[in-house]
Write a structure and sequence with these properties.
about 210 residues, Rossmann fold, Arc Repressor Mutant, subunit A, six-stranded parallel β-sheet, Tscrpt_reg_LuxR_C, DNA binding, transcription, transcription regulation, DNA-binding
């Protein structure tokens, strides 16, 4: 896998590069800002970009805007965003195109190497991965139609938003996979997401509560 890192903190930037290289991943470039992100991705034929949300010069949303620009030019290009804080609008912006291959993690998760590397692999493989704290924040703020969900359905939706597959959800909740399938069907029904809808219903279920902030 060919990975590019855009992170203004030199220590974290080099730490990420060392971690990825230790796992056999080819880090093709590291950038201290987002100005040349797209050009560098093209130059090195990168397959995944890990991007800090807040970068120079204003340290507000340069990384986010660069990530959206990349996705506009190359729909579905895998992007893993790192943020120091839960900023749900950024996750919503990136998920809005329904193309998958988006990750949003808090920087503190990088220290959990196994989980971080799993997120890298899953985003590169086309999945969406959301930080558990982001999901919990969204669920606490949830409003209708989320209020129609049962407590168990909310548990299932939270794990769906984190990117877990049905078998993984069943194991974490200590229920059968058919039970999880039934809960997910109920969630889709209550959120008005039907099989003939355009786009991936699992992504749209996540977007439903991302957009209700």
């Amino acid at each position: 896998m060919r990975v590019l890192i855009a992170e203004d903190d030199a220590l974290l930037r080099e730490g990420l590069a060392a971690l990825l290289r230790a796992e056999g991943i080819d880090v093709v470039a590291t950038l201290p800002d987002a100005d040349s992100l797209y050009a560098t991705i093209e130059q090195h034929d990168a397959e995944l970009a890990i991007i800090d949300v807040r970068m120079p010069p204003t340290y507000t949303e340069e990384g986010l805007l660069a990530a959206i620009d990349v996705r506009t030019r190359r729909p579905g290009f895998p992007i893993l965003v790192l943020s120091a804080h839960v900023e749900t609008r950024y996750a919503s912006e990136l998920l809005a195109d329904d193309a998958g291959a988006v990750g949003y993690l808090l920087k503190e998760r990088v220290g959990a190497v196994e989980d971080f590397m799993s997120a890298v692999a899953r985003v590169a493989g086309g999945e969406n991965v959301l930080d558990p704290e982001v999901v919990s924040t969204l669920m606490r703020r949830g409003r209708s139609p989320l209020t129609a969900l049962t407590a168990r359905e909310r548990d299932v939706l939270e794990l769906v938003a984190q990117g877990d597959r049905n078998g993984e959800i069943a194991a974490k909740l200590h229920v059968t996979e058919p039970a999880v399938n039934k809960h997910i069907r109920n969630i889709f029904s209550k959120l008005g997401l039907f099989a003939d809808d355009a786009g991936h219903r699992r992504v749209r279920a996540v977007l439903t509560y991302l957009r209700e902030q």
